Please model this.
Amino acid sequence: MTTLIESEEHKSLREAVSAFARSHPRALGTDNRRFWQDAAKLGYIGVNLPEAYGGGGGGITELSLVLEEMGAAGNPLLMMIVSPAICGTVIARFGTEAQKREWLPALADGSRLMAFGITEPDAGSNSHRITTTARRDPASGDWLLTGRKVFVSGVDIADATLIVGRTEDARTGTLKPCLFIVPRDAEGFQRRPIAMELNAAEKQFELVLDDVRLPPDALVGDEDAGLLQLFAGLNPERVMTAAFAIGMGRYALTRAVEYARERTVWKAPIGAHQAIAHPLAQAHIDLELARLMMQKAAHLYDAGDDMGAGEAANMAKYAAGEACVKAVDQAVHTLGGNGLTREYGLAQLITASRVARIAPVSREMILNYVSHQTLGLPKSY
Model:
């Protein structure tokens, strides 16, 4: 029943985060470093990280709740998907004691950020085509990392990037992804901003790694346990993307409902007309259903059921992405011409809402996953 009925503790957390987020100037499309640091001081950024390392001792359940409420208040923090959810989780589960001591307290208190690089220009959704390679320097034991990454969020504000590479012998056929912590000032580590038609505080970058030399302890976890470690970060990423989308959808829906209650063209507010009211009600239903699947995925992950969480996280991300796009579209349509003005701030969400459909994995790839993993249908690729 925990996935259906929130505890009083979670309800209180929702109320507190909502009040906090609403008390800050809207951060979408602006520098939100101050908002991040203020949230960290209250324990929101590191709520999922272990208490022994300065975190809140919660899980992805609590972290997704925080991000959803921030989004619903118009202040989503995209880097929460990356820094505490992906990188923090991977280091907490598989990092060395030294890596945990160095990174987790700093990620939790907001003093440091970490980005995540997996997508490559020629790999797309096929992680088996990752060509970023890591090889050992026989003389020193150092790692040498070479490759390219694209669509890496927040590299300019991150202190390091968790890079997904593969050991050189993986070229023979077996995928062995490995995770490396690459400091932002590492020699040979270059970044180039990607021009995006997206109004967001966090910028997107292409990375070039040209024989980036890393010490042996830059490797996170076991060189031979790559897929397990990788999906330990990717499942929370999908859950958090769902939270990001649900929060955005709720924000847009709230603005539309407020407008529909007040805007009067004939004799009654436009919200009295079913042509306006019913699509808004449907958007609300879709967002609530997506939230239920997101909560299920988060609970499964926090309970240690990685396999069950993988299925639910994909479904949650799919449902939330679709619900978000529909909610934003209906909100803009409800406001008519006003929905396209800067004053009401909804038009910029038209592009932003598509992010949850596309990233970190497309809806089509999720349908592929469900069709052959859940339904047992043959693969088409």
The beta strands are 114-117, 133-136, 143-153, 160-167, 177-183, 189-193, 204-214, 219-220. The chain has a mean pLDDT of 92.
